[in-house]
Amino acid sequence: MEYLILIAVLVVAGLIVGGFLLLRPGRTRPRPPAEEPTEERRGGATVADEAEGTAPTLERAPPTEAPAPPPTVEIEKPPPGAGRLVRLRARLARSQNAFGKTLLGLLSRETLDDDAWEEIEDTLITADMGAAVAAQVTDELRTRVQVLGTRDAAEVRALLKEELVKQIGPDLDRSLDTGPHGGRPAVLMVVGVNGTGKTTTCGKLARVLVGDGRTVLLGAADTFRAAAADQLETWGTRVGAQVVRKDEGADPASVAFDAVKQGIDTKVDAVIVDTAGRLHTKTGLMDELGKVKRVVEKQAQVDEVLLVLDATTGQNGMQQARVFAEVVNVTGVVLTKLDGTAKGGIVVQVQRELGVPVKLVGLGEGPDDLAPFEPEAFVDAILGD
Ligand SMILES: Nc1nc2c(ncn2[C@@H]2O[C@H](COP(=O)(O)OP(=O)(O)OP(=O)(O)O)[C@@H](O)[C@H]2O)c(=O)[nH]1
Question: Which end of the chain is less enclosed by CB atoms within 10 A, N or C?
Fold first, then answer.
């Protein structure tokens, strides 16, 4: 019994102490979370109020000036590809003048002795034609001049033209596969060492095709340099071509894949894929370009692999060209910067070495300075009228 009384006393005492502690003033209570605005308030009315039409009429702030609309880009209509080389012949004539003039000057000399023929051969070599071809051209010319028996300027010019055109290969197929087939766009991959003019060539080629009435999509798979994608976008915008790009450093193959996919979905005629193709190592290059090609081929055939070569780089460029040709199956060469060199003979050398025709030539930095290559027009420009 005494125990029971003791327990009851302890319970009552506990309750009194507990109650005192709980009701003690100044005790910190957990604060309610601060009120978070759930709707944007405008002058006391919420967006929802406005939508409902129940917002109080408030004096509105004077309307701020509307943001300027994005500048409208006028879509250009570039000239067609055909006949461009003839239009650009003045530029070619200027850079190759020494070559043609020297040859014609030598051939019209009073006496054509061994020294003169040696000079002719040297001139051809200096123009990057390659020693073997230069010797062959010189021998053939020598025989024909002797058979002809005269050295009338027009006749000599005609002979020289014939020999040069023969070396360049008038019958090589220089056509570009740029039309859709089997419900899929033509796919053109543009490869080459950095700085040769790949991105510029992609842009100019898009213009050639648009000028010929084709629809084009550009794939910026040169993800090594962000500026390359920007550059391509500018080219595309000017002619109304779609551009597929990703962030700098993205997988080039994934850009190429998306570009071809979008090209198929939007039913364009041709997809042009710009690549980085840095020449770190041959295996690295092979891995990158091989992967881009394999990935593209999951959706469409790659119709053209165009190797861009800078005509001003001579033997160095030839060496790089060989590496690319070993890594990918090049179907055509684009020789850029022919406006800046007197070494037009590179056309012959590159075709011989790679076994692929020169299909396009770059003759300046202007947007329409890319032309389909025509051997006769080229030689005419070199030799002058
Ligand atoms: N004179 C002349 N310049 C050219 C020609 N083609 C390209 N160029 C110039 O060459 C420079 C390099 O061109 P790009 O297209 O940026 O070269 P790229 O190969 O794409 O270079 P990366 O993007 O660094 O791989 C630019 O200043 C072009 O304007 C040409 O036919 N003639």
Answer: N
